[in-house]
TrEMBL record:
It comes from the Eukaryota. One of its GO terms (molecular function) is 2-oxoglutarate-dependent dioxygenase activity. Transmembrane segments: none annotated. Residues 1-157 form the Reverse transcriptase domain. InterPro entries: AlkB_hom8_N, DNA/RNA_pol_sf, RT_dom. It comes from Labrus bergylta. This is Reverse transcriptase domain-containing protein. Pfam families: ALKBH8_N, RVT_1. Coiled coil: none annotated.
Length: 344
């Protein structure tokens, strides 16, 4: 896995080149002209302690903090796609990761893909920060083969044992100890503010809302990815924060396993009813039409992954899901809310 870092990704967008690509994608001329006007001749100033700098007019890049900028960056790089079936490029705004499958120690396609990706970035005037670009090798063979260094623009890419991607810590052994430890530490720090609300005699409903927004949201971040593969020790770490919050608020809170089951079902259902989802083919009904075909797993690690857990979860439900209309896809039942009860 190659985790790519760009230097000031949004600031290097060339409006004329972006508009040319949007025109090729079929956007209307009026919309393209509006976007070109939006990105051109933007006045910028800096204000510090009442002092304002001189106005600087910018005609390159996209405004930082604008909700439109990530979308424009995604459209700019839409043609950066893999050339080989063994490689996959994951893009989320300016966070780009290339995942390659290396078979029989043959890295030819992987290295060619990296070279083509670097060329695509250069053509789009995107500057790769090789110093912050990292690579992680996942190899479970008993005797791993040494890998030659990977270079981009003549500089070697650093190999690391773990890295952080979209808020999730990914390790080369696919363990989740670092991730759960980080989530537990971050969530426990926010218990301090929950205790402050308790001392201020805030009602349980307010504390419950605060818990869901600032603590539960951390504990359940990408929970469908990692909780199923956690060790028993990792699973005991996070519920302690939930129990501590229960004692502070004084009302029962949904457990992480309950939230995991709800979100696992919701995510699996959305994939089942989305025929264009890349993983839709993994959910195939048996001839009876009541259960989904089980996925084979050659290891416990694979058997505990999201898709295998999702199929087992759907098969454990009392009845199959009814078909959903497109506008109903996101109207699935939300996770249970904590009960708002007051203590005597």
């Amino acid at each position: 896995m190659l985790f790519i870092d760009f230097s000031s990704a949004f600031n290097t967008i060339i409006p004329q080149q972006l508009i040319s690509k949007l025109d090729q994608l079929g956007l209307s001329t009026s919309l393209c002209n509006w976007l070109l006007d939006f990105l051109s001749e933007r006045p910028q100033t800096v204000r510090v302690d009442g002092s304002t700098s001189k106005t600087l007019v910018m005609s390159t890049g996209a405004p930082q903090g604008c909700v439109l900028s990530p979308l424009l960056f995604t459209l700019l790089t839409h043609d950066c796609t893999p050339s080989f079936s063994s490689n996959h490029i994951v893009k989320f705004s300016d966070d780009t990761t290339m995942v390659g499958l290396i078979s029989n120690n043959d890295e030819t396609h992987y290295r060619m893909e990296v070279s083509q990706l670097a060329t695509c970035c250069r053509d789009n005037y995107l500057f790769l920060n090789v110093d912050k670009t990292k690579k992680v090798f996942v190899d479970f063979r008993r005797v791993p083969t040494p890998k030659p260094p990977l270079t981009i623009k003549g500089a070697a890419v650093e190999r690391v044992n773990r890295t952080k991607f979209l808020g999730v810590h990914i390790s080369e052994d696919l363990s989740w100890t670092t991730n759960t430890t980080s989530l537990a530490k971050k969530s426990q720090q926010r218990l301090y503010f929950l205790r402050k609300l308790k001392r201020a005699r805030a009602p349980p409903s307010i504390m419950c809302s605060f818990y869901r927004g600032t603590i539960e949201s951390i504990l359940t971040s990408c929970i469908t990815v990692w909780l199923g593969s956690c060790t028993a020790a990792n699973r005991k770490t996070l519920p302690r924060t939930v129990k501590a919050a229960e004692r502070i608020i004084g009302v029962p809170l949904p457990s992480l396993l309950d939230l995991y089951g709800t979100r696992l079902t919701r995510k699996a259902t959305s994939i089942v009813h989305d025929p264009i989802h890349p993983s839709h083919s993994l959910f195939s009904l048996l001839p009876s039409g009541r259960r989904y075909r089980s996925l084979r797993a050659g290891s416990t690690r694979l058997g505990n992954s999201f898709f295998h857990q999702a199929v087992r979860k759907l098969n454990s439900l009392p009845s199959p899901f009814p078909p959903l209309c497109p506008h109903e896809r996101w109207m699935l039942k939300p996770p249970p809310v904590c009960h708002q009860e007051t203590l005597d």
